[in-house]
Amino acid sequence: MKWLFFRQLQGVEMAVKLYAQGFEPLQIFHEHQQQAGMAGQFGATSIFIGTMRDMNAGDEVKAMTLEHYPGMTEKQLEKIISEASQKWQVLDVLVAHRVGEILPNDPIVLVAVWASHRGDAYDANRYIMEALKSSAPFWKKERLVSDQERWVEKNTDGYNKL
Amino acid sequence: MLMSIKVRYFASLKEKLGRAEHVMDVTGPVTVAEIWTLANPGTAMPDNIISALNMEYVDSQQSVKEGDEVAFFPPVTGG
Question: C-alpha angle A11/A82/A108, rounded to 5°?
């Protein structure tokens, strides 16, 4: 799996990866954890994986294109992770996101947070995911089974029940 | 003062305008909102459009300077 962008930042342990082709979230999670050399330090790890559904707004969706703003997307993701690491005691963060053509059941996003304790791991992960949804410049264009194409207009607020 | 500004559009806005990016020479001082007007005469900026300056979110009243990159795009929908 080859990523388009990868940066390991100094100061705060974190990595942001963008993939133009399919990626295996748990494989890159394990690779990152092994390379990070944190064995014995972390007591809690939270993993969020977002996957493409075959249905949206009552219509069957057969494919999707994820556009992004190269440079700004990475910059905003790094900013979000930095904010989370100031709010919670985290040891490491990995964020991976797909771009390009994707199909139902393909992973779209992985957010993994390593911390000493579960509260920090859970809360930082949720914060990163919600902030990504509202401020990381990605845009989804769906292709329906009817071959009609449409842009997804806005993300829902994950803290509010539908 | 003559300034060269790169202007970029993304997603549905890019399709609607029929272009992804262009470079324009403008005489300052100029705000992000004025860049839109100069780049798209006769087309009001849609209410939901978000502005970025050098890859940071900004208010459209922010001033631009020589060599800046201004971007306009609809609400983001990643994740």
Answer: 115
Report yes or no: A43 and A116 within 8 Å, Cβ to Cβ. yes
Given the structure tokens 């201004």, which residue do they identify? B70
Find chain A residues with C-beta within 8 A of B6's C-beta: none
Rounded Cα–Cα distance for residues B62 and B53 (Å): 8
Interval A25-65: pLDDT, tens: 999 999 999 999 888 999 999 999 999 999 999 999 999 99
Instruction: Tell me how many helices (H) and strands (E) chain A has.
Output: 3, 10
Sheet with B2-9, side-by-side order of all strands: B21-27, B2-9, B69-73, B50-53, B56-57
Do A72 and B71 make contact, defined as CB atoms within 8 angstroms?
A: yes
- Model pTM greater than 0.90? yes
Distance CA B50, CA A68 (A): 14
CB contact at 8 A, A50 and A33: no
